[in-house]
Specification:
The chain contains one helix and 22 strands. By secondary structure, the protein is mostly beta strands. The strands form five sheets. Strands 2, 4, 6, 7, 8, 10 and 11 form a seven-stranded mixed beta sheet that branches. The model has no long low-confidence stretch (mean pLDDT 93).
Length: 311
């Protein structure tokens, strides 16, 4: 047997480059649809000699990119190739970079929105930075040196919740007067709709905190997806897993017992409520919020007088 030792020198890049996206310099970040991504490209000459004709090119790709949203400060965006160029034609300082000199350039871009976004699946965007420049070698001969840097951006799904209160629709039977009357219980149906877009969602759940003057009657469809904690007055709809582009619907019944102090008003029956879930692609929590619902319902037969508590 023989043993030999070899010394390995690790050289620093000739032009050290940093790239942060939304103030993060990790290899991969997560953004939401329509979000503007702010990029900062920085560089430092790590050699003991000057670098001339430095050029830094950012190549953007990925189906989630909105190519019309790209804008650069100190650089030129070439839309035909989806590249941003920083060189001496856009920044004089890149003509010659002395040892230890630093510089930076900024840019921004956004993801697609609307139908162009919802048609995607597991959308991503990628950035690749290519760096080149010239230095004078030991033999006084100009040498061209290059390096590269990459980043990945994953885009979260849009998980949204819509809701409404009705009085004549749905599969649950109604009781009580409409418009509601003081000291007389009236029932309503709350209809919920969850919508998912581009990525699979796990463990979707909707939580609703009912006011003290509203009770959950126990009637729901699908009944097995609802649970209620009487102590906290919290109603939960377990939506479960949702595939990309999937929509889920449910409904439940509430009973409203107006007090005399609510006479002539339109009380909130369901406060603001939200849906949350785990985006399996980005491994982040996603969700959306629905507005509060009052006795001023969305029923097609609703009249303005039906939304006010009567004596």
């Amino acid at each position: 047997y023989m043993v030999a030792q070899t010394q390995i020198d690790i050289a620093k890049p000739f032009l050290a480059v940093g790239l942060s996206l939304n103030r993060e310099d990790t290899p991969s970040i997560v953004v939401s649809s329509g979000e503007t991504v702010a990029g900062l490209l920085s560089w430092t000459n790590s050699l003991s000699a000057a670098i001339t004709d430095a050029s830094l090119t950012i190549t953007l790709s990925g189906e989630a990119l909105d190519p019309e949203s790209v804008d650069a400060t100190g650089g030129f965006y070439r839309s035909s190739t989806k590249t941003i160029l920083f060189d001496k034609s856009t920044m004089n300082a890149l003509a010659t970079i002395q040892p230890g000199d630093t510089g930076n350039g900024s840019f921004m871009f956004s993801t697609k929105t609307g139908p162009g976004f919802t048609a995607l699946r597991q959308p991503t965007m990628n950035l690749s930075v290519s760096v080149s420049g010239k230095r004078i070698g030991a033999g006084r001969v100009p040498e061209t040196v290059t390096s590269t840097l990459t980043r990945t951006i994953k885009v979260e799904t849009d998980l949204a919740l819509a809701s409404r209160i009705v009085r004549t629709l749905g599969s649950i039977e109604y009781t009580g007067p409409w418009p509601p009357k003081v000291d007389t219980e009236t029932t309503y149906t709350v209809q919920l709709e969850a919508k998912n877009t581009v990525n699979t969602v796990a463990n979707g759940v909707v939580k609703i905190q009912l006011p003290s003057y509203v009770r959950y009657t126990g009637s729901a469809n699908p009944k097995g997806e609802f649970s209620y904690e009487a102590g906290s007055r919290e109603l939960t709809w377990s939506v479960g897993n949702m595939a990309a582009a999937e929509t889920a619907s449910a409904e439940f019944q509430i009973a409203f017992l107006p007090s005399i102090s609510q006479k002539g008003t339109s009380p909130v029956l369901v406060p603001e409520h939200s849906i949350t879930g785990i985006d399996r692609f980005t491994q982040t929590t996603v969700g959306g919020q629905a507005q509060a619902l009052s006795t001023q319902t969305s029923d097609p037969t609703y009249q303005s007088s039906f939304g006010t508590v009567q004596p």
